[in-house]
Amino acid sequence: MKKFFTLMFLLLGSLLLAASDGVKLYHDYKSGFEAAQKENKMMLIMIHLKGCPECAYMEDVVFKDEKVSASMDANFITIALEFKETEVPAKYPRIGVPTFYITDKEGNIVGRQIGGTRSDRFLQFLEKAKSKG
Question: 0.85 cut: is pTM over it?
Fold first, then answer.
């Protein structure tokens, strides 16, 4: 019986790890910027709005795509800023929602995308901006 519970515990733990989002999101600019400095990574800044269908699609579908999440985790510190509730630095204006900026680790913009998109196109955006950083 003890082996059964141990096996069930390990199986449940594995399922919970597999179901995790994978992409770590910072929800304030300062902590994301500090992480980018510490980890020597570029920043991916998403300016979004609660209730925005395209924003939800990006977080719930695109960010969970295996290739996209792998690229995001390996190359970027991802910062999700809800523009009505979080201070967004002026150098990253909200043009629409979602608005994405990719910056070097110092915060200089190297790429921008407005609106949601499919996983394959978002991955192209990440790769193109990564080559500039």
Answer: no
